[in-house]
Write a structure and sequence with these properties.
116 residues, mainly alpha
């Protein structure tokens, strides 16, 4: 049973890292992507989340303003802040965790090769 869970976790890691390795997934913030051997810090995830969250939160503001029949009084920063926080939590618990797992493994392999 443990081997099955480990195998599934490895497969999920491979899939999420494959997505993270695609340049198109990072555009236009490709400069934020670390090398595969480097861990993805919470600061990097927060910056990435803020950049995407502000954009999509403002789009949500436009959508809410254009589709609501009654005047909805939301602070203009509410949806961008919530979207950024949601991006951070989801990305940190999924993609960043898998990225860091691979980075730890790659850096250990690299350390072993330097000692050989």
């Amino acid at each position: 049973m443990r081997n099955l869970i480990r195998t599934q976790a490895d497969e999920i890691e491979r899939m999420l890292n494959w997505v993270s390795d695609q340049d198109r997934e990072w555009w236009p913030f490709l400069f934020l992507r670390p090398v595969p051997e480097a861990p993805m810090s919470s600061l990097r995830v927060a910056l990435f989340s803020a950049l995407y969250g502000i954009f999509f939160g403002m789009l949500a503001n436009v959508f809410v303003a254009s589709t609501s029949r009654e005047f909805v009084q939301l602070n203009v920063l509410t949806l961008p802040a919530c979207t950024s926080a949601a991006f951070f939590v989801v990305y940190r618990l999924t993609f960043a965790r898998c990225w860091n797992r691979r980075a730890r493994r790659l850096s250990q392999e690299q350390a072993l090769r330097t000692f050989d």
